[in-house]
Write a structure and sequence with these properties.
The complex is a heterodimer of chains A (550) and B (243).
Chain A: H1 7-30, H2 35-56, H3 74-100, H4 115-147, H5 156-177, H6 190-212, H7 221-240, E1 243-245, E2 253-255, H8 259-294, H9 301-314, H10 330-342, H11 344-358, H12 362-367, H13 369-391, H14 394-400, H15 404-433, H16 442-475, H17 487-524
Antiparallel strand pairs in A: 1-2
Chain B: H1 2-8, H2 12-36, H3 52-63, H4 78-84, H5 119-127, H6 129-132, H7 143-146, H8 154-163, H9 170-174, H10 176-183, H11 191-198, H12 216-224, H13 237-242
Classes of the chains: A mainly alpha (550), B mainly alpha (243).
């Protein structure tokens, strides 16, 4: 893999690693009295390992010029593998903390093992580790195919992929040590946030450079979504994480905003992380892999346009529905509710567009578990966007907020939509990437599919039950006009559902493990000559159809 | 319209600018006015700031992820007000960088926890919740009582908080570490300065039951005991609403 890099590129990579080592050293020294120093040490260690690996290859000959006429897929391959590793880790921690709510003493007197510290490891692990890596990996794949252009160079994609994972590792290890700024889905502290900005800007430029080198006159829909994902996540990330560090040697920083302004900013961020990370990005995935796998063009170009701009516009108003009946001014709550309801139109336009694309390929949906993953994802996308709009209505929210219903809703989206479309895309691309006709075992894809569906359904039904019961118990009055149930009584009533939820999660985790095995075996059965990279179909009159790399 | 789009999707930069433009409107309209419209946050002239010990406790609350299970935001609903107390006002979290309103009640809301239980109850509960509430599923935090509080750099913390808008005085910043110690050692010479700087009503006690040593338990309990008590604005909402 490193052999594919030119001498020049290897030297550049080495320079980056050396810069990283220096950065790590500065962090270690500057933060020697704080946890920042621990992260500095980690960065330094990773950089040094990288430097040794890179120096050992400096003498290798340059790769053949020919490579520039094929797509560059090594980063996608590695990204997919890393994504599956995070999937297992993130799902495992998720199921572990689900069991913690059943057996609270499993914390065994270790700070890092308590619910509050592990929960962000789970959420970041699945959202950023699993989801983010899958998005980066597939975006590289999709942008090249839909633009018929090779990625412009061979160092930048690696920088983006590994830089992003460095962020994820710093985040996850930080939570275990108690480094967090407590903003949900934006927990990493200031130095990790700054690093992500660097990585993200490079990612954006890489994407733009590839687009500008395209051989297709039009930018395909999938790329609009990937672009929106990259751009808006950058804006959200920067604004929500504005903070003043205690000192440059301390891991701790204080948010620039406080109270009600902070709450609004946080949920503007939080809801749009759902919108642009967990929706737009994965819609980009869906718009490429679903039509290709089904062998049918997207049903409606106009519906794509309407839903894209609808999502981009409406979502940004919806965050305040997380703050109904709070100290947030009512006019903001009302705007949030209104736009959340309107959001159903572009959301269902997307889901409908996906399902209509499958119309005429139902036999494939029946026979092909990979396509069925994508089909179920579109269905869950439709369901959970409906549920989301419904829960954003103030009267419904008064019952659902603060309860497990929200948790169930998030998982209908995360397991049913995000994870399913990702597994579908991964099962589609692994054979393409490693030059196979099919996955190692179609049966195991089936097994994974049913484990995932069963796990999701059990999870979501358990949380609907517990959430609604909880919400009702908290607001039930008895005849004498006093509250009927104590908090503890509501807590005790949750136990059976917490057990069911943990079992649902376990099934989902087992499915992911089956998937890992299947992917691993597919890679291993790759024939030797598969080292040949992917090329586009030759065009008419033998004209070069690919914008070659530089 | 679709013709226009047909041209737009041929220009990467055009698409980028359009996405940024279309996506910024919502946030600008909803967030920017919160900083400028005065009524967004009520007036509370007598509100005090967190003491250094309470800041440290708050940071432990954040570090341990208590916010993942507890909210600090009582909504304007009858059952919530009856269960948890007067609904929360915006001003009450004016000095909360970041806010800890929370989003999930696996445990109860604790916006008005201050003074509800004794220090000893909290210490026992935090060490092992099931010793106090048999059915609890809250994790135990026994190490808090064993771990000394890192209080040397609390001055820097107050300084950073001042930079983001909390009105700490130079004197408060200068004495931060000493005040943290003093607040949990009522008989020491350092105790006096705490009430002088933060008000007579400030809790000055050996929160973890041991005045000799400043632990993380001291800090966390000091923080829990001040929840909902930085201002009394919420108990007389009419007065503040009229302003």
């Amino acid at each position: 893999m490193i052999g594919q890099l030119t001498k020049n590129e290897r030297q550049n990579a080495l320079a980056i690693l050396i810069a990283m080592a220096v950065g790590g050293l500065v962090m270690t020294i500057g933060g020697r009295n704080s946890l920042l120093g621990v992260h500095g040490g980690l960065v330094l260690m990773i950089a040094v390992v990288g430097i040794f690996a890179m120096t050992a290859t400096l003498k290798l000959p340059d790769p053949a010029e020919d490579r520039l006429n094929a797509y560059y897929d090594d980063p996608t391959k590695v990204g997919i593998i890393i994504s599956m590793v995070w999937a297992v880790a993130g799902l495992f921690v998720g199921d572990w903390i689900a069991w913690l709510l059943v057996f609270p003493d499993l914390t065994f007197d270790a700070a890092w093992a308590s619910f509050g510290r592990l929960r962000p490891v789970h959420t970041s692990g699945v959202i950023f580790g699993f989801g983010g890596n899958a998005l980066i990996a597939t975006s590289f794949y999709v942008v090249q195919r839909t633009c018929r252009a090779r990625l412009p160079d061979q160092v930048t994609p690696w920088f983006v992929l590994f830089g992003y994972n460095l962020f994820c590792v710093i985040a996850a290890t930080g939570y275990l040590m108690g480094v967090t700024q407590s903003k949900e889905y934006a927990e990493p502290e200031w130095y990790a946030d700054l690093w992500l900005v660097v990585v993200w800007v490079v990612y954006f430029l890489l994407y733009l450079r590839t687009l500008s080198r395209r051989k297709e006159p039009h930018i395909y829909v999938a790329n609009w979504y990937y672009m929106a994902f990259i751009l808006v996540v950058a804006v959200l990330h920067i604004v929500n994480n504005l903070a003043v560090p205690v000192s440059f040697g301390s891991e701790k920083a204080y948010s620039a905003f406080s109270g009600v302004q902070d709450a609004m900013t946080q949920w503007w961020y939080g809801h749009n992380a759902v919108a642009f990370f967990l929706t737009a990005g994965f819609l980009g995935m869906l718009y490429y892999y679903l039509p290709v796998r089904a062998g049918r063009p997207i049903y409606s170009y106009r519906m794509s346009i309407i839903s894209f701009w609808g999502i981009t516009f409406f979502y940004m108003w919806a965050g305040s529905h997380h703050l109904h009946y709070t100290a947030l001014p009512q006019w903001v709550q009302t705007l949030g509710m209104t736009f959340s309801v309107m959001l159903l139109v572009p959301s269902w336009a997307s889901a409908g567009n996906a399902l209509m694309t499958l119309n005429g390929a139902w036999d494939k949906v029946r026979d092909d578990a990979t396509l069925r993953f994508m089909f179920v994802a579109a269905v869950f996308y439709g369901l959970s966007t409906f549920e989301g709009s419904f829960m954003a209505i103030r009267a419904v929210n008064s019952l659902s907020h603060y309860t497990d219903w929200t948790v169930g809703h998030v998982h209908a989206g995360a397991l049913g939509w995000v994870a399913m479309i990702t597994f579908g895309a991964i099962y589609a691309s692994v054979p393409w990437l490693w030059k196979q006709d099919r996955m190692y075992s179609a049966k195991l894809v089936e097994v994974h599919f049913w484990l995932a569906v069963a796990g999701t359904l059990i999870y979501v039904f358990a949380m609907w039950n517990s959430g609604i019961i909880q919400g009702l118990m908290w607001r039930t009055y008895n005849d004498s006009g006093t509250l009927a149930y104590s908090f503890i009584e509501s807590l005790v009533a949750m136990r059976p559902y917490y057990i069911a939820r943990a079992i649902g999660g376990l099934l989902f985790l087992l499915g992911a493990l089956v998937g890992c095995y299947n992917i691993w075996m597919t890679i291993r059965m790759a024939p030797r000559e598969s080292a040949k990279a992917d090329r586009p179909e030759p065009g008419a009159a033998g004209a070069p159809v690919l914008q070659p790399g530089e | 319209m679709f013709g226009l789009h047909y041209r737009l999707e041929r220009k990467a930069i055009g698409l980028v600018l359009a996405i940024i433009g279309v996506s910024s409107i919502g946030g600008l309209v909803e967030i920017a006015p919160l900083f400028t419209i005065h009524q967004t946050v009520e007036d509370a002239p007598n509100m005090r700031v967190y003491t250094p010990l309470e800041v440290a406790g708050r940071n432990i609350y954040i570090r341990e992820g208590c916010y993942a299970c507890h909210s600090q935001m009582i909504r304007t609903l009858r059952d919530e007000v009856e269960r948890y107390g007067p609904y929360s006002l915006a001003v009450e979290s004016k000095y909360d960088h970041p806010m800890l309103w929370g989003s999930k009640r696996t445990g109860p809301d604790i916006a008005r926890l201050g003074g509800k239980y004794s220090d000893a109850w909290h210490v026992a509960h935090l060490i092992n919740p099931r010793d106090v509430v048999k059915e609890s599923i809250m994790p135990g935090y026994p190490w808090l009582a064993r771990t000394s509080l890192a209080s040397e750099d609390l001055g820097l913390h107050l300084k950073a908080l001042r930079r983001v808008g909390v009105p700490y005085t130079d004197e408060m910043i200068e004495h931060a570490s000493n005040d943290a110690y003093g607040q949990s050692a009522p008989d020491s010479s350092a105790a006096e300065g705490v009430t002088k700087r933060y008000g007579e009503a400030t809790n000055v006690r050996a929160f973890d039951g041991n005045a000799g040593r400043l632990t993380e338990m001291d800090a966390l309990v000091a923080y829990l005991q001040i929840l909902g008590r930085l201002t009394d604005a919420a108990t007389k909402p009419v007065a503040s609403a009229e302003k």
